[in-house]
Amino acid sequence: MRSMKGIFTASLVLLASALAFGTTSLAQDDEGGGGMPTAKGKGKVTDAINSKLGALFDIGGGVTMLFPRGLPVGESRLVTLKKAKGRPPVNLVSGFKPVGPALDFNGAFNTGRKAMVLSVATKRDPVTAGKRLVLAMEVGTFCEKKNQRYKLKGGLCSGVELHDAYYDAGGKRLVAELQSTGGMRMQFGVVPEGSDE
Q: Whole-angstrom Cα distance, residue 182 to residue 86?
């Protein structure tokens, strides 16, 4: 009986050690950027985001979107990131010059302090003197003279919000850290300094 108790105790110790090792390994991986579910596709990814785990979407061509842990999106929010069929109505923004592909993300999120990170690979910094880098995000808004030809469902029309972006020279990529998304198309680009349309 004693030997059986000893074997049982030893097994519990080994199991506890294994569990502790696994938890530590995952935490270390996560701190280094790993340990997070990654969904990959060619031009499109549709997958669920779990707020407890976070997620990384990679649609190829250097286009990724990172969803950190703790986003207020539940445990199985199904969303799609893909290359868009057309650009958002960036001509509504004076002097806007597109950089990289137009993207379409169907998740309309307001994440608070947690930032989603959208990035697009590019070899050169597109910003020149007197310009700044932005992400143009399509949103539904009231129809006015300048945007009435861009009709949406529900009696709304397309509008454009500009979000600050930057060029990561080390990673050679365009980056936008987003607290909200409009659930439609997005486009990196450069605009004249002072433009806030």
A: 16
